[in-house]
Every structure is written in C-alpha cells, then in structure tokens.
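Priority: medium. Attachment 1 of 2:
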C-alpha cells in the first residue's frame, strides 16, 4: 500500500514536504471532508449528528495533537472520545480519510487503516500479546488495512497482518493471517445442535 494510495493522513512513510514530519491542519480537514463524503455515499444521514462521526472527529483532533507533540491533549481527547462514543481509537493509530463508523460503541481501532474503510458495530483491529514487536507499518504488533476494507459487525483483526484493498471481513470473524485484495472472508457456517436430551 503506497503513501498516495493510503491517503494523506495515513502517513506510513513521512513525506519530505511535511514540516518536521508533522501532520498539517489542512490534511486533517481533508480527512474529515472525506469522512463526511463516505457517510453521504452510504446514506448514513447527517454525519454531524451521529455519534460515530463524533468518534472519528475526536480521533482526528487527538491524532493532530499527537503529531504536533501535544501528548497530554491527545490522550485527553482519547479519553473524552471513549467516554462520549464508546470507541477506543488511540491517537497513535493512523487512519486515512473516509472512515465510516456508524455504531462506535465497543469498536477498537489500533493500527493503520486505508481510505474509505467501514467498521460495523464492535468491529475491531489490534495487537496480539505473543507478537508485540513485529511492525509491518501499523505499529508494533498491529495490523495494516488497505483501502475500502469492510469489517462487518463483530469482525476482529489481530496481530501484525496486512489486509488487502477492498477485502471484506464477515460478521464475527477473527483474522490472524493476511487477507488478499478483493478477498471475502466469512465465518464457519453454523449448524444446529440437538436440543437438551437429544443424541449428540
């Protein structure tokens, strides 16, 4: 996933034009505009009235503060975000513009996410305790998601694994290995079990 394809604020590798490698306010505004556009395309209603957009907005502010070196302000905004929206999006995460997060409660986003990603209710990405030092671009032990990735409700991506562009992770699916671009991963099909007292 290249820097251009990942969007201006993902910043997997810092550009030489950025002042001291810091995120610029114009990039934050562009990312917020892309977020609102994605909400419009998905028919999520007025984004500014939705708590999911508030989660994204507060994350963008905390990320900006984190990149400017205002660490106390960044983590204070992270705490406010968790209290108000129920989402856990650390300011150290790198998320490109166009994030769609309609139901933020219980969502954790720790890693790097490309443009126009969509997270269902309680969909999360994060690290594994067994591989805390491996870094593939999202941070130590954290995943990297490509552009236009969709995580359905309850989907989880754990560890330093890459998820290709336009991949779709089905509901309640746990991903521990790389997923290729345009791949769709669904959970195992369920099967009914006999009731109590029935033969197993």
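Attachment 2 of 2:
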């Amino acid at each position: 996933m290249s820097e251009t394809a990942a969007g201006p604020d993902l910043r997997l590798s810092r550009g030489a034009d950025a002042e001291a490698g810091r995120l610029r306010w114009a990039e934050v505004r562009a990312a917020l505009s892309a977020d609102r556009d994605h909400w419009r395309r998905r028919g999520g209603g007025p984004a500014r009235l939705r708590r999911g957009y508030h989660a994204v907005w507060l994350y963008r502010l905390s990320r900006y503060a984190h990149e400017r070196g205002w660490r106390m302000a960044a983590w204070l905004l992270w705490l406010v975000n968790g209290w108000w929206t129920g989402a856990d999006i650390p300011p150290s995460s790198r998320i490109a513009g166009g994030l769609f997060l309609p139901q933020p409660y219980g969502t954790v986003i720790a890693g790097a996410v490309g443009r126009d990603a969509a997270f269902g209710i309680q969909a999360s990405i994060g690290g594994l305790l067994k591989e805390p030092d491996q870094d593939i671009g999202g941070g130590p032990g954290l995943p990297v998601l490509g552009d236009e990735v969709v995580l359905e409700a309850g989907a989880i991506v754990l560890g330093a694994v890459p998820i290709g562009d336009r991949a779709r992770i089905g509901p309640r699916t746990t991903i521990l290995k790389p997923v290729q671009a345009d791949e769709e991963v669904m959970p195992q099909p369920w099967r009914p079990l006999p009731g109590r007292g029935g033969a197993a």
